[in-house]
Amino acid sequence: MPTFTDPVADAAEMSEAMRGLAHASIVLDQPERMYGILGDLLGAIRSLEQILGQFARGHTNSIGRAADDAGDRAAGTQDALTAAAELRQAAALIGQAERRVDAGMAAAGRIAWQLPAQTSEPASRLINVVFLQGGEADHALELIEAGGADAVIQELAGYDFGDETVDAALENGYVYDKVPVASLDRVATLDAYTLVYNHDHRHVALYRAEDSLPSPVLLGIADPRHAAPAGTPERDGAAADSRQARRERLGTPTINRQNYVNHPTLQGLGR
């Protein structure tokens, strides 16, 4: 607490308080509090200007007692005059700083601080559902020419085994922040899927957003073309081809797609 009578004690307390403020203001994560702090700081600056002027007068008022360590009064008088002049100059500079702080505080008082802006959620990663190249891709590429990319996406969606496909992609590193597209590649999207294909290099790849739920029609649940009765050659042949291609590419265990047929959702995708 200030004494208002003991300049030595009050100067020591002021020094400690300023050191504390310097440390406490390293991180100002509550900007709405800065205006009030600037008000206190402005008061301290004004007091500092006054203090320096008073110390300048103190040196001239007591100049008759000044001497150096050898008792030379002339040398002491010169040093007292020099000290007073420097302190008056410092007071003038503090006065300039006081006006700058006052203007800054006025601008700060016009700020209406808002809550931090909500950051957008990171975009969903893409997982590779299937990749076909060479002879394996010829049928899909021909289908693109005949019926368009949507037809191929609908057919290749049969390779999507829900959580099993996601787990296999994560395990084998087939996960991407954005669609991997090379020179001459073409891109098409349908529902949650993205198709990348290249006639010149003869490859086709289907990707899906990791946390997206594809349409049940695309997954072969609601469309009769993809939900043929179990045991039919069409159904069993397509399922076997899908399982074999996925096993060869990703080395994952056999998945019986019949388990998903006629269910309202797919395991891991509808929950």
TrEMBL record:
Biased composition (Basic and acidic residues): 233-250
Compositionally biased region (Polar residues): 253-265
Disordered: region residues: 224-271
Designated name of the protein: Uncharacterized protein
Organism placement in taxonomy: Bacteria, Bacillati, Actinomycetota, Actinomycetes, Micrococcales
